[in-house]
Amino acid sequence: MLKIHKATVQDIPEIQSIAKTTWPVAFDGILSQSQLDYMMRMMYNTQELTSQIEGGKIIFWLAAIGKQSLGFMAYESQLPIQPQIKIHKLYILPAAQGKGVGKGLLNNLEEYGRSNGFETVTLNVNKYNSSAIKFYEKRGFEKIKAEIIPIGQDYIMDDYVFTKKL
C-alpha cells in the first residue's frame, strides 16, 4: 500500500537518490549532460534542500511502499496572493512508474487543495518531455502557455505551464 509522508531534513538523502536515478532517464535526449549536472547541483544540493524544507514554504512529500521510497513531490501554496498550489517537482523512480505512485501523490495534493480552499494546481513541464506531458494531460491538466526560464550559466528551462481546476 502506498504511504505518503511529509519529508524532513532527514529525508534529504532519499530525495537526492531518487532525483539522481530519475533525472538521467526523464531528461535523456532533452538536456545536455552539462545542463543536467548543473541543475542537479543547483536544485538538489543538501544546503538548498535543507533551506526549502526548513523554510516551510516548499513542502516535500515522499511516497513509499513498505520501506522503499519510490518518488517525491515538492509544492507550495500561493496563498494569500492567489488560491493555487504550484507543483515544483514530481519524480518517480523509473522502475516504479506506471504503478500509481505519481497518481497517488497528485490525488493527495488535490484532496489537500480542495479541503483547504485552493482553486487550481499549476506546474511546469519541459516541452520535450512527452511522457510527463501525457501523464499530466491524462490526470486532467491543461496546457495554458509556454515559457522560457533562464536558470544561470546560459541554461534555460523551456517549459509548458499546465493547470488543473480543483
Task: Please characterize this protein's 3D structure.
With 166 residues, the protein is α+β, with helices and mostly antiparallel strands. It has a single domain, classed as Gcn5-related N-acetyltransferase (GNAT) (Aminopeptidase, 3-Layer(aba) Sandwich), CATH 3.40.630. It contains five helices and seven strands, in the order E-H-H-H-E-E-E-H-E-H-E-E. It has a seven-stranded mixed β-sheet. Strand 4 (84-92), helix 4 (101-115) and strand 5 (120-126) form a beta-alpha-beta unit. Helix 1 runs antiparallel to helix 2 (33-44). The radius of gyration is 15 Å and the shape is globular. This is N-acetyltransferase. Keywords: Transferase. InterPro entries: Acyl_CoA_acyltransferase, GNAT_dom, MshD_Acetyltransferase. Residues 2-166 form the N-acetyltransferase domain.
Uncertain runs: none
Provide the CATH topology.
Aminopeptidase
| Order of strands in the sheet with most strands | 1-2-3-4-5-7-6
* Strands, total number: 7
- By CATH reckoning, the class would read Alpha Beta
- Fraction of helical residues: 25-40%
Please write the string of helix (H) and strand (E) elements: EHHHEEEHEHEE
Mean pLDDT: 97
Largest sheet properties: 7 strands, mixed
Q: Distance between the terminal alpha carbons, to the nearest Å?
A: 25 Å
The shape is globular
Structural class: alpha+beta
Number of domains: 1
Count of DSSP H/I helices: 5
What's the CATH architecture name?
Answer: 3-Layer(aba) Sandwich
Q: Classify the beta-strand content into a percent band.
A: 35-45%
Q: What's the CATH superfamily, by name? A: Gcn5-related N-acetyltransferase (GNAT)
* Radius of gyration, CA atoms, in whole angstroms: 15 Å
